[in-house]
Amino acid sequence: MTNRKDEHIKYALKYQASYNSFDDMELIQHSLPDYDLKDIDLSTHFAGHDFDFPFYINAMTGGSEKGQAVNHKLAQLAQATGILMVTGSYSAGLKNKKDRSYPSLREFPDLQLAANIGADKPYQAGLQTISDLQPLFLQLHLNLMQELLMPEGERSFRLWKSNLADYAAKSPVPIVLKEVGFGMDEQTIRIAYDLGIRTFDISGRGGTSFAYIENQRSSKNRSYLNDWGQTTVQTLLNVQNLTDKVEILASGGIRHPLDMIKALVLGAKAVGLSRAVLELITSHPLPQAIDIVNSWKDDLRLIMCALNCRTIPELQSVDYLLSGRLLNIRNRKDLTGK
């Protein structure tokens, strides 16, 4: 019997998004910068921690031998380059105490590690995850459409909000609420804010499509939902009014440093990469993958210099142009409703 997690990896690599919203956003360059390249500072802060770089490996896999192999390479890559790694959902680890598919700080003592679990899991499950993995923060994922399309998916959702309230009030580590590629809307952020959540990964459409993945696994013909949700840039534009109240992280279709910078311009504190890094470790030897990730840091600095920005917060002052499908985007009301 094929492992569901292995099928996710297979179809994630197979899927090609038909549209990436970052291609409809253009940055306005600055021809007379105030800084030297060496002055550029890539550090950022979110979820209660300082990070040297504004990008990280986002949650992907676990719970299988293939997942273990993937996670081992991802952990090696993250540790060697000094970037954060978020584990895939720890649900398999909770079910099987012998599961060794998730990276541990015993094996990778210098790894910046965060953990992921579904918002359907009660606080006690999250506490066990924190105890097992000792993460810097706990990422709670919202995957409603994936669950609805998944043949073996959840059908009960009423407790998700009370679970979030428990995590926000009781967790010994910071909480990050994450979508899984469908785009988190402002209303969801407003509700979660009232429950006590302060950091959000909006994870928009444009990268891995879990609608496509589950439709590939299902016998039902629901391919018309493969493009469900809002794109990453569209989502970022819609939540820009919230960045003075909450921390926004961005993921979903981020392919390279220019996409990273565009997300940071739109208010993200950092960006998460999944498929781009998965492709990297499956198509390159690890030493070459490490060199490529390190080169991304250099590229971020040179793009920031061309935008006359020394720090990540300064990027939010950069002018940009929207075209194509993004032309009609309008910001919605902020958390206060004003």
TrEMBL record:
InterPro entries: Aldolase_TIM (IPR013785), FMN-dep_DH (IPR000262), IPdP_isomerase (IPR011179). Keywords: Cytoplasm, Flavoprotein, FMN, Isomerase, Isoprene biosynthesis, Magnesium, Metal-binding, NADP. It catalyses: isopentenyl diphosphate = dimethylallyl diphosphate. Its cofactor is FMN; NADPH; Mg(2+). Residues 160-317 form the FMN-dependent dehydrogenase domain. Its EC number is 5.3.3.2. GO terms for cellular component: cytoplasm. Pfam families: FMN_dh. It comes from the Bacteria. FMN binds at residues 59-61, 89, 116, 178, 203, 208, 253-255, 274-275. GO terms for biological process: isoprenoid biosynthetic process. Mg(2+) binds at residue 147. It is found in: Cytoplasm. GO terms for molecular function: FMN binding; isopentenyl-diphosphate delta-isomerase activity; magnesium ion binding; NADPH binding; oxidoreductase activity. CDD domains: IDI-2_FMN (cd02811). Substrate binds at residues 4-5, 146. Belongs to the IPP isomerase type 2 family. PANTHER family: ISOPENTENYL-DIPHOSPHATE DELTA-ISOMERASE (PTHR43665). This is Isopentenyl-diphosphate delta-isomerase.
